[in-house]
Amino acid sequence: MMGTLAALLAGKKIPTPEDRYWADVTGDIENVEGILKITRIGVTYHLKTQSEKAQEARDAFSSYIKRCPAAQSVIGCIRIEDHLIIEEMT
Question: Are 12 and 35 in contact (CB under 8 A)?
Fold first, then answer.
């Protein structure tokens, strides 16, 4: 998921080095009828970018999940909650 978003950001000329782009990931594992299942994946993306690129970053975020092979593979059985936090740089 992070790679797909990074690719879309790169297409908009928004750099994603480690010190400017990272993700915090959490998940829930629940007992479902006696079987442990991953039921939720939570991803909070952090991006530091130029102020003039912030809206382009939001646009990329709004559409990346539809293009992400990993997300599309599990979205029917695992709830995905994603958020983007942008720190605008001058």
Answer: no
Pairing type for strands 35-50 and 21-32 reads: antiparallel
Strand partners, 48: 87
Report CA-CA distances (Å) from 86 to 21, 30, 53. Answer: 9, 31, 10
Q: What is the pLDDT of residues 15-49, one digit of tens each?
A: 999 999 999 999 999 999 999 999 999 999 999 99
48 contacts: CB under 8 Å, gap ≥ 6: 19, 20, 21, 86, 87, 89
Across 57-84, average pLDDT = 97
Question: In the block, which residue shows the tokens 């991953």?
Answer: 38
List the CATH code of the domain at 2-89: 3.30.300.20
Please give the Cα distance from 2 to 35 (Å, whole number).
Answer: 28
Domain ranges of the chain: 2-89
